[in-house]
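Render this sequence as a predicted structure.
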Amino acid sequence: MQPLNADQLAHLTRDHHETLSGVLGMEFVAASADQIIVRMPVTDRVKQPFGILHGGATVALCETAASIGTFLGIDHDHFNAVGMEINCNHLRPARDGILTATATPLHRGRTTWVWDIRVQNEAGKLVAISRCTVAVVPKQG
């Protein structure tokens, strides 16, 4: 896969406007065969009632990066990429700013891809680490 250019990244972000990634304010920053980078602002919509980032929003960010990264690397006409398993360790709270998830494929198989995802705050400190397995499944119908 060739790295996506700025127009393609903007199109990818717009295409997901009505999905969870759009609702949470995610933006695709870079995408290549070796890495995908997605940003998400820490706004009230991604916080828990105590004013800190909700862990589920972090997991959604990680799975979005892994799923889209897999989708970009497979035959779109015949297959879809769907999350199969994810774990996430939350290392420090986030109350504001922008988080950046950097996903790197560890395994690119015929039926599964495994990703390592690092989520950092604007100061470059790790907020979370995650591993996500994405299934490559035949399209139905």
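Summary. The first helix runs from residue 6 to 15. The chain has three helices and six strands.
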